[in-house]
Write a structure and sequence with these properties.
This protein is an alpha/beta fold. The protein is built from 9 helices and 14 strands. Helix 6 runs parallel beside helix 7.
């Protein structure tokens, strides 16, 4: 049995531009996208980060993780090496990326996204003295891996409640980046939240790519086209869980009077690059990846590395709805009631559609 612990995660960090999840990377290095920086005169923690496609700057998942890295670097000093995945990556590429970081002395080495699960399982056993972390997956076998997981379906349920209450057409949409189990959790929670609130509402669902094709997480043009199609069909609230592709969906929604976008992972209302669309961003399902990443780095710095499955649920602030803009203030009582029922177990949120 692997040790399982639930760690309290509180607050919603809404720091600017340098965040982390699945987006358009702004870094560069030798073989692939990446960057290295140091602070504190070479002392502190050597942090190795392998971002998912899009990398730092995606205004979503990778950026949320990057906030945790930045906070740790500021507090502890040391050095950070960041590498970013490509949509064309093979398993060998991911193994090489993690091996390069571990072999160069970085500890911890953190894989941002479920795509690193198999490669981390291979690499972690080769570097037993390095602590690895993975976001959104559980790596069975190695004892030196911190599995950082979230209850995305719970935050998405609240988004579904908000969508149903705000929709005037009784037609809402969900856009997923790739039809993988993780993103299906977002869909499942959202649809359940809508249907529990207004059973007759129409929920339109579309995925941007399928299977091993991860381009759906880094294709704003695909996100925009999908959202536009839903708007043309009568949807007036669209929730997108698709990394940087979501920026395209937000752009499309902003062009439709009376329509709302729901962001994901980071508080997208607060993103400087999305400022011209912010009046159309109803809320965001915030996944505090930064807290899980920071906790791991601090544990290594303190000499007590976290390992096993560490879950960050709604009850501990791991996921939440952003309130920036004040657009959901009028439905707060209904949202609070739904959240209370999730936390106390009255509502069981599905993890599959």
């Amino acid at each position: 049995m692997r040790r399982v612990s639930k760690i309290a995660a509180a607050g919603i960090a809404t720091a600017a531009l340098a965040l982390s999840a699945t987006a358009c990377g702004s870094t560069s290095t030798q073989k692939e996208s990446g960057t290295s920086s140091s602070a504190g005169g070479g002392k502190g923690v050597k942090i190795g980060v392998a971002y998912d496609v899009g990398g730092r700057g995606d205004h979503s998942f990778n950026d949320s993780a990057a906030r945790g890295v930045d906070k740790a670097k500021t507090e502890f000093g040391g050095e950070v090496k960041e590498l970013t995945a490509k949509t064309t990556d093979t398993e060998a590429d991911r193994v090489q990326r993690l091996s390069d970081l571990a072999g160069a002395g970085y500890n911890p080495v953190i894989g941002i996204g479920f795509a690193y699960a198999n490669s981390m399982k291979q690499v972690a056993v080769k570097y037993p003295n390095v602590t690895f972390g993975i976001v959104d997956s559980v790596v069975e076998g190695p004892k030196n891996v911190d599995d950082i997981v979230f209850t995305e379906e719970q935050g998405s349920y609240l988004a579904g409640v908000a969508a149903a209450l705000k929709s005037k057409t009784n037609h809402v949409g969900f856009i997923g980046g790739v039809d993988v189990p993780l993103i299906k959790k977002f869909e499942a929670g959202f649809v359940q939240g809508v249907k529990d609130t207004k059973p007759s509402d129409n929920v339109e669902v579309q995925y941007l790519s399928h299977g091993s094709d991860t381009s759906g997480f880094a294709s704003p043009d695909k996100g925009k086209a999908a959202a536009q199609g839903m708007l043309d069909n009568g949807a007036d609230v669209i929730y997108t869980a698709a990394g940087s592709s979501g920026t395209g969906a937000i752009e499309a929604v902003a062009g439709k009077k009376g329509a709302w976008a729901i962001g994901v992972d980071s508080d997208q209302y607060q993103q400087a690059s999305l400022a011209k669309y912010k009046d159309s961003i109803l809320t965001s399902v915030v996944k505090n990846v930064d807290i899980g990443v920071y906790d791991l780095i601090k544990s290594v710095k303190d000499g007590k590395p976290l390992t096993g499955v560490n879950s960050y649920p709604l009850s501990k602030g791991g996921v939440s709805l952003a309130t920036s803009g004040g657009f959901i203030a009028d439905i707060k009582p209904q949202l609070d009631a739904a959240q209370k029922k999730i936390v106390d177990g009255t509502i069981k949120v599905k993890t599959t559609p």
